[in-house]
Specification:
Elements (H helix, E strand, L loop, with lengths): L1 H28 L1 E6 L6 H10 L6 E6 L3 H9 L5 E5 H9 L4 E6 L2 E2 L2 E5 L12 E4 L5 H11 L9 E4 L5 H7 L4 E2 L5 H8 L2 E6 H4 L6 E6 H6 L1 H16 L3 H11 L4 H7 L3 E2 L7 H13 L9 H4 L4
Parallel strand pairs: 1-2, 1-3, 7-8, 7-9
Antiparallel strand pairs: 3-11, 4-11, 5-12, 6-9, 6-10
Length: about 300
């Protein structure tokens, strides 16, 4: 009798274990891990995660990083299924053989050239120090575009790479004379009174591309329906981000004041996040012109539309 009871209990335990494992596997299968930085340029994916939090089906697991290099390492090594990332960095990874596709924009517009209060024109930047977050960025392209309005190039100034969080204080202390970076750090410089907007991105580069949503080829190939559903929900989330909703989402995920968010969200929008061939080809031309890459990936190789 004892042996029979023991056998029944063992069998029951195995059954419960298999059921539990099945639920865990099913849960994991319906989760997509997305890397992001805590910036307003990531709000569409943050809003999507929030919308799906209490719904059944696909769930977005947000993985926060403190720098683009950390995020790229996670993306390139396959530790996440996708990321909201500077599109030029993703293009570089694709060029180096990493299996990823850009599936949507992160936002539209939303970048500014911030300069110290004594600088009036782009010509005044000659001989000055200007900060960008990374050479492979739209911020670098926008800097080149701004300088070109005055017949200058980056050879005429001192370009330095700084962490976004350091830029407003560096401007305030006089360490740098201007910067261009993902929001809300431009707005922080304005809020501090340390600087002002010299150009908005749309003044320099109409329909500029900056951050993009990318997914790994592995996720797209192994879970095509989930990939399609994720991108569709992402675009819906972007379309729902009016200024009020964007601010509510930003306050949940970003440690910023109302004033900074109010300034920053004047410059950005999240609707119509498709990557068109024309806008991407303009980006490719600028990437080549300003020396970011000689052989960026083609639209057909890099962009996947849903």
């Amino acid at each position: 009798m004892k042996r029979r009871i023991s056998a029944i209990l063992t069998s029951l335990g195995l059954t419960l274990s298999l059921v539990s494992c099945g639920k865990t596997a099913e849960s994991a299968e319906k989760t997509v891990k997305i890397a992001y930085l805590p910036i307003t340029h990531s709000l569409a994916v943050l809003k999507e995660a929030q919308d799906l939090e209490n719904q059944s089906g696909l769930k977005v697991e947000l993985v926060k990083y403190g720098s683009w290099n950390e995020l790229l390492d996670a993306l390139n090594s396959g530790r996440v299924d996708g990321a909201s990332v500077l599109i030029e960095l993703a293009m570089k990874s694709k060029q180096e053989g990493i299996g990823i596709k850009a599936v949507a924009l992160g936002h539209r517009d939303g970048n500014v050239i911030i300069v110290s209060n004594d600088i009036e024109t782009a010509a005044d930047l000659k001989g000055k120090t200007f900060a960008i977050p990374h050479r492979q960025s739209s911020h670098n392209i926008l800097l080149n575009d701004a300088l070109a309005t005055a017949g200058l190039t980056t050879d005429d100034i001192n370009v330095t790479e700084l962490a976004p969080t350091e830029m407003p204080s560096a401007l305030a202390s006089g360490q740098i004379d201007g910067y261009c970076v993902a929001e809300p750090f431009g707005a922080m410089g304005v809020s501090l009174g340390a600087g002002k907007v010299l150009f908005s991105s749309e003044e320099l580069w109409e329909d500029s591309l900056c951050c993009g949503l990318v997914l790994t080829d592995k996720f797209i190939d192994e879970r095509p329906e989930d990939a399609k559903s994720f991108v569709e929900k992402y675009k819906e989330a972007g379309n729902s981000l009016d200024k009020e909703t964007a601010k509510e989402t930003a306050k949940k995920y970003l440690s910023q004041t109302d004033e900074v968010l109010d300034i920053s969200l004047q410059w950005i929008s999240y609707s119509n996040l498709d990557i068109t061939e024309d806008t991407y080809n303009t980006l490719v031309e600028k990437v080549k012109e300003y020396g970011l890459s000689d052989t960026p990936p083609t639209y057909s190789d890099f962009v996947k539309n849903y």
